[in-house]
Structure formats: structure tokens, C-alpha cells
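I'll show a sample.
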Amino acid sequence: MFKVTSVLLFALFCVAFSATHKAHPCNFQETCGLHDFKRVAQADSDRIHTVKLHLRQNNFGASCPSLLDAVSNPASPSYGEHYSFEQIGELTWDQEAIDAVHLFLRQHNVAKYQSKVAPNGEYITVKAPISTLEKMFSAEFHVFKSESQSTQIVRSESYTIPSHMESYIDLVHGIHNFPLYNKHSKIAGLVKAVDGSVTPQLIWKTYNMPNSTDATPLADQAVFEGLGQSYSPADLKQFQKTYKLHEQDIKKVIGPNSPNSCASDPNDCGEANLDVQYIMALAQTAPTVFWSIANEDGDIFLDFIEAVAKDSKPPQVFSISYGGPEEGQDVADMIRFNTEVCKMGLRGLTVFVSSGDDGVAGSQARGNPSACGFSPQYPANCPYVTTVGATMGPESGNPEVVCQSDLGSLITSGGGFSNLFPTPAYQKTLVTTYLKTASNLPPTSMFNTTGRYAHPSFLLVTSSVF
């Protein structure tokens, strides 16, 4: 498991990070607790491997926050004037960086047909032999095998962006990324001995929601899935019949989905089934997309955000029920994810992210009290997502409170302050008031009071969801 420390990456607010990127040591010491990939051999030098070179995008990360505030703040005269896919491209297409990278590739005998630029210039996909990539980025690839996922990946402990390319390339995806994430529920044990259960009808009653089936077809939505999760169309149909919901199929499946695995191991479908069934119950008739990332990929969130960036007509709302400890992630990866979500906001898209199931300590404290502490979760830590926590009580006829395992809940709703992202302007007044008036707070020396107050933005009753 990760050892939670109070000193993390906050110094990066003041200093630029090095061009050398290192994976968390737990990946090679087999102590992460979030995956079981083990190094088994040196990678074949002739093996073809794919990486994505993320470009600077005219330093778009610096300008995006003010642009987003202009279109999302109700007090702004530009409120609601979202950007088209083409207008985003006008802002992010960085011809100088693209030309510099193409020259860099030619110098390493990577032909033009071996690379492809994303539609709006966010990154360049490159397919090249391992030996070539090792020379380009001072890497050393090995084969890593996962028994639980029955798959292999090739990764390096680190890579370095050459100094003459630092001003053009922000990061390289596919060299040192491991899946340091977990899904935020487990089907086994969902039926816990509490007084009642959460159903669509209970949610409607609790929040005075209508049982509506008139969602506009223009307001589409998507669930993000990864780590081998699949949903079952048969289970979805049975769920809709059981709760007398509008019967509707998933509009589109993007990525892998293996419904047959649900019968052999319910945990292969627990998270995905839950996500699909309840998003479709609360927004009945809204077109819904199942957006899945292959389980052999390292950073599922970067994979996802890359796919959305090149999609000219993505769903308008995304729901993500996955996360991992901020401490274990690559800083450049998190910053790029945040920039891309900011860009999604400019397009009028919304991303909801689960705050986590393990309180402020994070999943690394499960069964390991020594790991208790303050561990912000990614991507809930990103300022441009809406983080959603969990409550309990109404299912038992009691007042609504935050989910807590010591009160009988299966989970303790996540919470905390980011050690990487500072408090955004829209949260500063709220956070200042909270820190001054909240009772029973731990000593402020134990957490970053100036970080993004990540968890949660709002809460929804979820304890004992069926």
C-alpha cells in the first residue's frame, strides 16, 4: 500500500517539474495494492509500441481557466457562449510544436506514417520499436504481467524528455503509466444488513424528483468504465422492469464490453451495472453511452481524455466512479487531465466524479490502519470536475447524513483537500468560511488548507443501492 505522507507535491506550485518523469516506486516493489503487474522480462527491442506525445497547445493550460470562467459564470456577459470543436482547435493547434516533434521523430528514423496528430493538435500518436523509444526518451522497457487481468504491458520506470523538446512536449503517455486506480464499489456485499435499500423511487422521493420520461434527446450522457468492467444488457432490462422504468437500451458502446463475464464473476460487472442502471433511471430516455477503456492501458483517465478530445460530438455529461491516490500519480498527467477537463467545460460538457469510498484516508487504508491519514483522490481533486459524495439515512427512514462505515454504511464518503491543485476562485469564499466555522476539524497542519477542496461538491443518497 502507499504510505500516506503530509509532504507531497505542493512545492510544484512554485517550481517547474523536471523533464524526467518517474513512476511511483510501489509499481516495482509490488506494494501499490491497486494492481498486480509484476516485471517478468526485458522487452524485445523490435517490439512495436504506441505512445502519445502530449504537446504544449500554445500553453493553453494557462489561458483556459479565465476562458472557462467567462462562459460558465452566470455573472459573465459571455455566460453560455460555449466553444465549438473547431473553435477549440483554433486555440490549441500549435504548428511550431507539431513541426518540432515531426523533426524530432525524423531524426530518430520514425516515418511520418508512423505518427498521427490529434484533430485539434493535443497530442501525436507514435508507433515505433521499443529500441527507438528507449533512445528517444532515455527509457528502459520491461514486460509486466497481471495475473488477475490476464494481460501484459511494457513499461519503463522512468523517461526523460530531451531538453531541446521540453518547450514542445509536456508528457509522454504510454511509457511509465500503471493503473493506480480502483472502482468505487464492489457488488459482493452490496446487500448489507441495514434497514432499507436505495431504489430509484427512494431517490425521487428524497429529492422531490419527478418520475420523468421526457428527457430531450439532445441531452446525452455517458458512464466511464475501466479496469475490465462490463455491463449486462439483460441485467439492465431486468432492473428497468423491476422498478417500472422506461425500458431503454444503451445507445452506443465505445470500447470493450463482455456481458458474458457477469455470470461467471459478478464483480466483473458490479460497478458498470450500477453506473448504467442508475444514470438511466434518473435521466430516463436520455441517450446513454457506455464508454469503456481497455484494461491493459496504464492511465485510464488519460486514455479517456484523449478520446474525448478528438471526438467532435461527445456526450454532454460524463459520470466517473473510479479514482486513485493523488500521491501515486504522475504530476504532468494530472495537470494535463485537468486542462482537458477545462477544455470540455468550454465546450459545454460536464464531468461528475465520485469522491471515493474511504473517507479522507483513501483506499490505501483499507485493512491497513497504519496507512490512515489525508490522501486526496484523483481525478476528484481536479478543479474542473464536479465531485459527488454519498449519503445515508433516507433508506432507513432517518435524516440524511454523510455515509460512514461506523454508522452501518458499506462506505465512508471521500473527502479532502488537494496537495497539487490550489483552491480555485469559485471555492475560496466557501473554503475560508468552512475552515473558520466548522467544528471538530483536525489540526490544519495535517492537510493542505490552500488546496482544491475536492471532496465533495455535493452528495447523493447511495448507501445500500440495489
Observations:
- Confidence is low (pLDDT under 50) at residues 1-18, 186-194.
- The CA atoms of residues 141 and 239 lie 46 Å apart.
- The two ends are 30 Å apart (CA to CA).
- The chain is about 25% helix and 20% strand.
